[in-house]
Amino acid sequence: MNPPWDLMPLTSPRLQAVSLACERDWRLLFEGLDLDLTGGAMLQVSGPNGSGKTSLLRLLGGLMQPTAGEVLLNGAPLARQHGDLGRTLLWIGHAAGIKGLLTAEENLAWLCALHKPAACEAIWQALQAVGLRGFEDVPCHTLSAGQQRRVALARLYLAAPPLWILDEPFTALDKQGVAQLEAHLARHCEQGGLVIMTTHHSLTEKPSGYIELDLGRRSA
Ligand SMILES: Nc1ncnc2c1ncn2[C@@H]1O[C@H](COP(=O)(O)OP(=O)(O)OP(=O)(O)O)[C@@H](O)[C@H]1O
């Protein structure tokens, strides 16, 4: 049987940043930032600590308003699409973002239910894909940091939307986990998905649409 993520038809997303500026605590992090990303692209946002990588991701994911400029998703301002964002965009933040008292299966069930409920079988397949077979029904606070990160990343193996915004997705993963995630992200892009992520990790597997944006080299 094919895994569920192979059954998901991707509608190619387009994300644009138009003359984006970001100021935090009266400190200008960047300004005049333009991006035009379509399905197939992988944008790696790099730069030193505090250069504004997470802030940029939050702007692109609609979690924060820019100081100037705007973000367009499929041609329309992101700010006006909050109700529909979950169908297009999957956000996985710096923290694993899972509930310790819930099991891995329960965490994924409620996270998916926010936008599109997932069948129990699909959730177990996703957990198996991230190496958590046998840990489906234990409370997540009993899992290691890397295993908790894997629970969060299992969402990328469910019927995920086409645009993935991931803040430091490789944190706490072992070598095998890093290699597997790299391959999965590259495959998502080759299938028409769009990945935007921050990482200090140097990628060994890059899709043809790979782009790097180094915020440390931009003058604010
Ligand atoms: N909630 C906040 N309120 C005010 N300022 C903030 C907040 N979060 C971050 N900042 C400031 O914004 C700047 C950029 O932070 P950001 O987290 O975007 O950087 P980063 O490049 O992702 O850093 P790191 O590599 O350490 O994760 C920092 O100077 C930080 O102090």
From TrEMBL:
Top-rank taxon: Bacteria
GO BP annotation list: cytochrome complex assembly
GO MF assignments: ATP binding; ATP hydrolysis activity; transmembrane transporter activity
SUPFAM superfamilies: P-loop containing nucleoside triphosphate hydrolases (SSF52540)
Coiled-coil residue windows: none
Ranges of residues in domain ABC transporter: 13-216
InterPro entries named among the record's database cross-references: AAA+_ATPase, ABC_transporter-like_ATP-bd, ABC_transporter-like_CS, ABC_transptr_haem_export_CcmA, P-loop_NTPase
Pfam families per the UniProt record, alphabetical: ABC_tran
Tagged with keyword rRNA-binding: no
Keywords for this protein: ATP-binding, Cytochrome c-type biogenesis, Membrane, Nucleotide-binding, Translocase, Transport
PANTHER family on file: ABC TRANSPORTER I FAMILY MEMBER 1
The protein, known as: Cytochrome c biogenesis heme-transporting ATPase CcmA
Organism: Aquipseudomonas ullengensis
Lineage of the organism: Bacteria, Pseudomonadati, Pseudomonadota, Gammaproteobacteria, Pseudomonadales
